[in-house]
Amino acid sequence: xxxxxxxxxxxxxxxxxxxxxxxxxxxxxxxxxxxxxxxxxxxxxxxxxxxxxxxxxxxxxxxxxxxxxxxxxxxxxxxxxxxxxxxxxxxxxxxxxxxxxxxxxxxxxxxxxxxxxxxxxxxxxxxxxxxxxxxxxxxxxxxxxxxxxxxxxxxxxxxxxxxxxxxxxxxxxxxxxxxxxxxxxxxxxxxxxxxxxxxxxxxxx
Length: 205
Known about the structure:
Structural class: mainly alpha
Radius of gyration: 17 Å
Largest sheet: 2 strands, parallel
CATH architecture: Up-down Bundle
Number of domains: 1
CATH class: Mainly Alpha
Helix content: over 70%
Number of helices: 8
Strand order of the largest sheet: 1-2
Number of strands: 2
Shape: globular
CATH superfamily: Ferritin, core subunit, four-helix bundle
């Protein structure tokens, strides 16, 4: 699948150091991936409850929540197949740092949450695409699954940005650029923990 719109949107690609660490720590990768799918579904449902009068948001978030829960079930099955203990992992700073940048007033808060949602989905898509070739020989079934996810993640990214444009009273490009700049700093910087959306693991020993 052509993910050039995602690559053109993001300000950076995943560093090689993160990818190298990820393929050596498939257990953590899968556990956190599963958690991310649950969190994505939870975020979609939260937006539905918070903005019940936004018809298009209701429709797009309902579809997104269904798909994310399905993805969680699929990843959870892969965790079980590998005999990996499904443990609780502390979150990375990634999503929390981005959401702290959202404006407080409405509808700007909703617009920012939609932009941030789009950025997170775009990063997920980019990481699946970057990981798949590296997993072809060591985890071919997982590589195939990550390629399968590209279509839905790419659509989720587009859906979030469509909603941001719809509900914003002004052009969103300036906000998108600001948030993308901050996202790139998180991806290119070092993190104390390795997670699906973390920066480069500080301790790579």
